[in-house]
């Protein structure tokens, strides 16, 4: 396959995935996956991609974000690397931490739910398999001071789309 071309397809229970130096295909129903990768390709990247494919099949997606649970509700912090997601997790003050790197979003009982993932960043591995309905999302941007404003729905969706991992 051609290097630097990305392609993912999901049909019924099977998937095909091509990205840079990795090719994978599998059958989700029987739990079989075949992977071909060049030496040095990051397994973590492949696993994130595989989880993304499974989530798409379940009408969900993986988001570059950190999140904490307070009083049974998820508060999510989205943003690029260096924007403060891990810092927010560190400041969670004993609350359950979903993750400081990647959180799965799926619909559960008609509502969006945030799920912990095994893809942690600088904060380290959490032993929690925590999930909670989403209460609020905050979009972080590194800056020299603090400011905030409420985004309209269109702005929020555009910013969230930039943080979806696939």
Brief overview:
By secondary structure, the chain is of the alpha+beta class. The protein has helices at 43-57, 85-90, 153-161, and strands at residues 6-11, 14-19, 22-27, 32-37, 61-70, 73-78, 96-99, 102-108, 111-115, 131-139, 164-165. The protein has three helices and eleven strands, in the order ββββαββαββββαβ.
Description of the molecule:
The protein is of the alpha+beta class and 166 residues long. The chain is 18% helix and 40% strand. The chain contains three helices and eleven strands. It has helices spanning 43-57, 85-90, 153-161, and strands spanning 6-11, 14-19, 22-27, 32-37, 61-70, 73-78, 96-99, 102-108, 111-115, 131-139, 164-165. The strands form two sheets. The chain has a five-stranded mixed barrel with strand order 5-6-10-9-8. It is globular and about 45 Å long.
- Mean pLDDT, to the nearest integer, reads 83
Residue share in β-strands: 35-45%
What's the helical proportion of residues? 10-25%
Strand order across the largest sheet:
5-6-10-9-8
Return Rg in Å: 17 Å
Query: Helix and strand succession?
Result: EEEEHEEHEEEEHE
Largest sheet: 5 strands, mixed, barrel
Structure annotation, total helices: 3
Shape assignment? globular
Structural class: alpha+beta
Q: List low-pLDDT spans.
A: none
